[in-house]
Write a structure and sequence with these properties.
Elements: E1 3-4, E2 21-26, E3 30-37, E4 44-49, H1 63-68, E5 71-76, E6 86-87, H2 95-109, E7 115-120, H3 122-133, E8 138-144, H4 156-168, H5 174-180, H6 188-195, H7 205-209, H8 223-233, E9 240-245, H9 254-261, E10 271-273, H10 280-283, H11 285-296
Parallel strand pairs: 4-5, 4-7, 7-8, 8-9, 9-10
Antiparallel strand pairs: 1-6, 2-3, 3-5
Helix pairs in contact: 2-3, 3-8, 5-6
Length: 298
């Protein structure tokens, strides 16, 4: 497998991102990056999974508040994103491979248990699969602006537009796309930080093809595995909280399905956060930290 590795110099002096990098090797000989902040934290473990086309920089505003509350926080970069290696051929990416790479990191390499899982966007498509397959490893789950599609639902016009944009835009402007999905005005330095993992278009195969990996039709290759995951999720007793925002056209309404179908979501204090876009980690970081700490018992 041919892959690229973003030079470390691209990550120097990024605003708000003064974290120590950690790496493991996963399938394909790929190096996968993750943050591991406050490893001696006694309040519990929180794993934060990002989505498309962001990376662990998305959690820079939340990590300090969570670690101050005593949590250990692990935030990986998915393969193709952030400081993780980037296969250059789109055929080297699949939904199944993304699930397996994160599984290798969290379970096979770090052997994590009692995980409080926070997922957003593709973080949910990956994390909810891991949850369904390995419920005993998880203590609680917080789902924010995400879902687990099976290809049996219409994903709506906003997703259809996004899928077309990802395929046709040249160049693929990662930082500008983060701004489009964020209510808060990012600084030029923050926009540049989201662009940092991608020195040129050859690094963006994973980001560009991600929307096409979402099961959007019943015969999608990933649809059977997601349907099987739902059969387990509808019996899941792991405490489950939804924290969605009020300004996300892509996942709006999905929180109701999660709340209705997952037993662990019953009776929880679910919330729609005002003033948040798709990337609510940028818009509602302080409120997210407050709700996560309350839910996780800190």
């Amino acid at each position: 497998m041919q892959f690229l590795r973003t030079p470390a110099s691209r990550f120097a002096n990024l605003p708000g991102y003064d974290f120590t990098p950690h790496y493991v090797e996963v399938s394909g000989g790929l190096r996968m990056h993750y943050l591991d902040e406050n490893p001696a934290g006694t309040a519990g473990l929180i794993v934060c999974l990002h989505g498309e086309p962001s990376w662990s920089y998305l959690y820079r505003k939340m990590i300090p508040g969570l670690t101050a509350a005593g949590f250990r926080v692990i935030a990986p970069d998915l393969i193709g994103f952030g400081r993780s290696d980037k296969p250059v051929q789109e055929k080297d990416y699949s939904y199944g491979w993304h699930v397996n790479w994160v599984k290798e990191l969290l379970f096979d390499r770090l052997d994590l248990t009692q995980i409080n899982l926070f997922v957003q966007d593709w973080g949910g498509l990956i994390g909810l699969r891991l949850l369904a397959d390995n419920p005993a490893r998880f203590a609680r789950v917080i789902a924010a602006n995400t879902f687990l599609p099976t290809g049996d639902q219409d994903l709506g016009p906003a997703f259809a537009r996004w899928k077309t944009m990802a395929r046709t835009m040249n160049p693929f402007p990662v930082g500008d796309l983060l701004q489009l999905g964020t209510v808060t005005k990012l600084t030029p330095a923050e926009v540049a930080a989201y662009d940092a993992p991608f020195p040129d278009e050859t690094y963006k195969a994973g980001a560009r093809c991600f929307p096409e990996l979402v099961p959007a039709t019943p015969n999608d290759p990933a649809a059977p595995a997601n349907r099987a995951a739902w059969l387990r999720l509808v019996e899941l007793k792991v405490p489950f909280l939804t924290l969605f925002s009020d300004n996300d056209p892509i996942t709006a309404g999905a929180e109701k399905i999660l709340q209705q179908k997952i037993p662990g979501a019953q009776g929880k204090r679910h919330k729609i956060m005002a003033g948040g876009g798709h990337f609510l980690q940028e818009d509602c970081a302080g409120e997210l930290v407050q709700e996560i700490c309350a839910f996780c018992g800190s």
